[in-house]
Amino acid sequence: MADLRARVRPGAKGRQALIGRAWLLAVVLGVLVVLAPRLASAAERRYAIVIGANEGKLGEQTLRFAERDAERVSEVLLAYAEVGEEDLVLLRGVDAARVGQVLEQVGRRIQADVARGEAPVLLVYYSGHADADALHLGRSELALDQFELVIRAIPASLRILVIDACRSGELTRVKGVVPSESFEFRAEGELDSEGLAILTSSAAGEDAQESDRLEGGIFTHHFMTGLRGAADSSNDGAVTLSEAYAYGYVQTIESTSTARFVQHPTYAFTTRGRQEFVLTRLSPQSARLVLAEPGTWMVFGKREGSDLVAELGTHAATTLQLGASTYLVRLRRDELVWEASVALDRGQTLELDADAMTRVHQGQTVRKGYARGVAGSLTIGGELGAYVVGPQGLVGFAPLGFKLDLAPLTLHVRVRYGYLRRGRAPGPGDDPGATGLALRQHQVGADLALFKLFDLRRFAPGIGLRVGGDQIWQTFETSGVAPIRSQFVGRFGPVIRLEYSPIAALVVALDLGTDIYVMRSADADGQIILPVVPYVGLELGFYLF
Question: Given CB 3.0 to 4.6 Å as the disulfide criterion, which of 215, 231, 251, 494 pairs with 243?
Answer without folding.
Answer: 231
